[in-house]
Design goal:
The structure is a homotrimer of 247-residue chains. Chain A contains 4 helices and 18 strands. The first copy, chain A, has 247 residues and is of the alpha+beta class. Chain A is elongated, with a radius of gyration of 19 Å.
């Protein structure tokens, strides 16, 4: 049995963070948190999501055998419903055989059949990665660069050159470059490396960041990109992982 | 001869209330009011509209034989013109042979050929109906439920169960339900009944309610739905009637 | 060598004023100003644009032989980039062989290959015209009339009849007319004349007027229309010229 209450706007941000990578996924409910790990259909991007129980106003979980519950969720559908009616409290409950999710907002009750977890793509293993460089950047600065990049090309280069972090996208006739020195960033590990990524994935991820103040980019040389940020005043965590393109 | 002046925003609300059901219709002008009765092309929905002469700032009507004037109007066209330029005063005038409508807003004059009333669908008879249950509900609560319902399915159930009024829509995988007890409503006749309706019609009607504060739903058992509301500070009245679906 | 700094919003208004007529064009840079003259692909509309050096916060120009520089620009592309990130300062620079334009906004640098001026349509000669009538009108009044006109028809009549300036558009069933007397206008030369124009061109021009307070219309009898307005607090000037239609 799972019952919880949470701010509807906060839950909507969680759903949007996940939808940036996958439409369906298996949310695990434990005594400590809700969490999810899912990979996109093309196997290029991964999302890891965790929301601690103290991000909820009410959180009741009990499972006879102490095991986690698994809910298979259609996230765009859930997000669409949460978008109705502005911020207010939302009450979630799941029946014992985990077949239906109940979402209650004021006088409105939304009941959705959960997806059979065994029908969903297998949860990915999180690969062991070491990132030589870490960049902490203002989310809005990041997002507006990505928006501008969308007008230019399809691939984007993320790199560090000495004390500067840069993002660069080339079109046929033009080029856009954001270059930020260490002192314009919240944090930067100096270095010399870069990796190329498909812009579409990063665009989607940049829309999953909601009102987050800053994000952390973990980078290597022709290596995956990891983007991490906190939600719910630090009571939740989202991590995206994106495979690099060969230049 | 008919000449009148009225707030452009108010006239636009009237047009939107009518457009929710029909695109064309015959407006009757009498000494007391403007009024219209029209049925949609599929014969499923009806609108009855009345705007009293004291909703106008100027209202001059004279017809030799004391009879009403009939204007055949293309409402989306008229509404589109009223939408230009924000709220201001609008001056209407109709020539004696009722062939042209003149709409004047500031320095702008719009002249439109009226439709030949004999070319329009006949005005429906308003059937004699008795509604055992009446529900008065906040318009915004109603409208947001309809908006949410559009994401789920195509038919909506309106019902009363004891002291509760409910609206319910089912999709293939999910279900949405608004349930409101007597004390959450402005008025409720307790009872036990429900009727099913095509959501599209109700969606359109919910967009015709403008800034109206509350609406009245009149219900029966597998019976038509009547939605009533006042406009122009009580100087006008709109009533929608919608045939039920067989379950 | 050309280097300049200017408010991004102001530069965007300039680009929009030009885009109302042409997508590509040759901007000439001189010691005194930036200027352009270009004709649309169908040879029906012309734009003349000038922005004085004192509209810029920084303006450095030097060319060995004292001649002007010519930049071939793709305006929609440049406008799209300036739209990112709201109003702020923008820094332009052009390399010596005029092959690339550099646009710097904060940490963002956009580099675009300039178009080869010899590949662009030839700059038109500005014909010698004499306009018997001049009308100075509030831009918003003009623009909202054009917006309303778009709902009615495809051609628009601009005329003066004694002390009244009018704009008139006819549809199959309806007609829209703006009539303004001398005292409702900022200026009017009385007269008796009119000309007919294709509405599409005027719609585009009305979108190129940005926040401009008032515009000047120069008119003749079955004669081109000239629309003039100032930008950048009078430090810049835009002039549109549009050929009339035969009635």
């Amino acid at each position: 049995m799972f019952e919880a209450e949470i701010d509807a706007g906060l839950l909507k941000e969680c759903v949007e963070a996940i939808v940036a990578v996958v439409d369906e996924g298996k949310v695990r409910i434990s005594d400590e948190d809700l969490n999810l790990r899912a990979v996109d259909p093309s196997n290029v991007a991964m999302v890891t999501f965790q929301l601690q129980r103290d991000a909820f106003d009410v959180y009741r979980f009990s499972n006879g055998d102490g095991a986690e519950l698994e809910m298979g969720i259609d996230f765009p559908k859930l997000g669409g419903i949460l978008g109705i009616g502005g911020r207010e409290q939302v009450r979630l409950s799941v029946d014992d055989n985990v077949q239906k999710l109940n979402v209650q907002m004021g006088s409105l009750t939304y009941t959705v059949n959960l997806l059979d977890p065994s029908s969903l793509r297998k949860e990915p293993k999180v690969p062991e990665l070491e990132f030589p460089v870490q960049v902490v950047i203002d989310t809005e600065e990041f997002r507006r660069t990505i928006r501008a990049a969308e007008k230019i090309g399809e691939h984007i280069l993320f790199g560090v050159e000495g004390d500067e972090f840069y993002m660069e996208v080339e079109g046929e006739m033009d080029k856009l470059r954001l270059g930020m020195r260490k002192e314009q960033l919240i944090h930067l590990t100096p270095g010399t490396l870069h990796s190329l990524f498909t812009l579409d994935y990063i665009s989607a991820m940049s829309k999953g960041m909601g009102h987050v103040d800053h994000i952390t980019l973990n980078l290597g040389k022709n290596y995956p990109l990891q983007i991490e940020f906190e939600i719910a005043d630090g009571k939740g965590k989202v991590s995206y992982l994106l495979a690099p393109r060969v230049e």
